[in-house]
Membrane protein insertase YidC (Paeniglutamicibacter gangotriensis Lz1y), 322 residues
Amino acid sequence: MNFLDMILTPFRYVVSWILWAFHELFTFIGMDPNSGWTWTLSIIFLVLLIRTALIPVFVKQIKAQRAMQALQPDLRKLQAKYKGKKDQLSQQAMIAEQRALFKKHKTNPMSSCLPMLIQMPFFFALFRVLNSTSQAIDKEEGIGKLSLDNIHSFDASSIFGARLSETFLGTINSDGPINGAVIVVAIVMILAMTASQFITQKQIMSKNMTKEALEGPFMQQQKIMLYILPLVFGIGGINFPIGVLIYWTATNVWTLGQQYYVIRKNPTPGSAAERELNERRAAKGLPPMGQKKEDADAAAEAIVEAPKVQRVQPQRKNRKKK
């Protein structure tokens, strides 16, 4: 067993237990245990369970993102301070001041990636589980909680004619006849996976970032993530089993919906989403976000009832006659 397998072993057992539990549940309520849709629902509910458990982490991610946006003016001042200074001492001093700045705001650039980093072991564990069905059948052994019968059932199950254990690349490189259904389903799932990831990141940049953040160095990191991550997963998707593509697409759709809800209901102060929220609240007669109705009413009354001070014209003094 290599080092990666040793790390992923507990995650493989967790993933296999959850898949088995949901498969048993859907079988109990009358679904065909060998149907690809039963296994697909099991994978989707695996996503729902993991993402629900990660909601506290997502809340921390939102707070970290807002802290990163709040310190953008300070980062720009820091960059201006060390502009043109390429010597080692200056670079070390700038890095030290950046770290102190991140510590002060209790955040760091990696905080926004925390949910994805936590999900990755489950993703790779599911990949190992679904990608090793053929080996398990050859060895006549189960995978974690999944018995050999479960493995046979999953390996033979399909949706729209594409088996959940097959991959785009494996189908193209197979010696036998090419299953066009696998190619079509894989391409559709890869496009859905990459598009949902791109839209989620684009939504943050266009709606939930302040003007200072859009002009700051943090924006470069966001632009890289906007284009690089969908590209990486899109290229890697040709080697993902259909079941893994379902998992990752369902994860991205959850993230997109969750992000849309947060941006609409609790946007970053100073962002375009906050202005839109305040416009909607104003149309309903509600105060701006973060302001109590009593305070807004008191401020409005103070403006209306403020007494008008009449300007006193200076009196003309009679000049003495010479």
User: Anything to note?
Assistant: Residues 3-83+95-275 form one domain.
